[in-house]
Design brief:
This protein is α+β, with helices and mostly antiparallel strands and about 150 residues long. Strands 1-7-6-5-4-3-2 form a seven-stranded antiparallel β-sheet, with helices on one face. It is globular and about 45 Å long.
Length: about 150
Amino acid sequence: MLNHVALTVKVPRSQVQTWDAIVDWQSQSNWMLQTTVWVTSEQVEGVGTSIEAFTGPLHRIYPRMKWLGLLDLMRVTLWEPPVRCDVIHYGKILKGSGTFRVEEIDASRSLFHWSEDIEAPRPVFLLVKPFLLIGVKISLARFVRQLE
């Protein structure tokens, strides 16, 4: 069953600046809560780019103690700069899709829309959803702060 979550934040940067900051995959480690992100393909942008992210309390020492977190395997499936990037999650545990969308407000402000469709039994998803939303809200607030 697919379960949908989505959040939006206002960013004090242009659409292009916001896009550039979002798709700088490795810098996501600076704002995503307890997460280290890296590109695993030679290609660093566009359809086909492969990205991995490890989330957990000891993310900085991954892969030691990898059992204390979640490894998210992703591949870019849609690339429409500076508007939209879709990924597929194809790991052992996390499966589904995600979308980053950047909407222009004016020349110096934009909206960052983050959404995920996660494959999971509904009861399991309902248990983890509050923690997922809190983590993403904190991460998006950190993203906005880094661009202020």
